[in-house]
Amino acid sequence: MKVIYTIFAATLYLACPSNSWGQAFSYTHHSEIGILTGRDNFGERINFTFQTFNGLQLSERHAFGFVTGLDQYGSLSVVPIAMGWRGILNPLNKWQLYGGVDLGFGSTLLEPTVVTTWNEHRWQDGGFMGQSSIGLRIKNKKANFWSFSLAYKRQIYHLTTANPRELSPDRNRPEDWSYYAKDKITFNNVVYRLGYWF
Description:
By secondary structure, the protein is mainly beta. It has one helix at residues 2-15; strands at residues 26-40, 43-57, 62-73, 76-88, 95-107, 114-115, 121-125, 127-139, 145-164, 177-197. The protein has a domain at 2-17 and 47-112 and 127-155 and 188-197. The protein is built from 1 helix and 10 strands. Strands 1-2-3-4-5-8-9-10 form an 8-stranded antiparallel barrel. A hairpin with a 6-residue loop joins strand 4 and strand 5 (95-107). It comes from Cyclobacterium jeungdonense. This is Outer membrane protein beta-barrel domain-containing protein.
């Protein structure tokens, strides 16, 4: 976790306009909506995804910033928080090929702890998120871009089920629970997105 916090702090510092290192880097933004497709124990699945990339255009070919959004896996909501890089192959053309890499964390902050009538507690914890993408962006009359992309996304999270032994048990202390089971769940996704870039 300390490494992830350090990466995000560095990303925010670099994205701050006052820290442009003596060079006039421009701001760039890319919002996308799409579908996550994959397979799990219940068969094929199709889920909703939204993400936004905000950062600095370091050169015609390279941008660096941070990524957030929402991935919906059935009833599970995961908020990605990551650093991202975008590279443009042919920035002078109307039709441009680009690639991207995002590394970070998928947060389950929108997910509450559920307590059943048998006093069983269930909660989710986020985990590693990594994504690589390739896409095509098309310049419009306003010199902004429409984009179409294909990505591979890996998202890990943990589901914990436990019965308390104490009145006020600590989630991070298994000895406070008479039963404590933590399962690691991995979502491997092929992602299709449509976006707008400026």
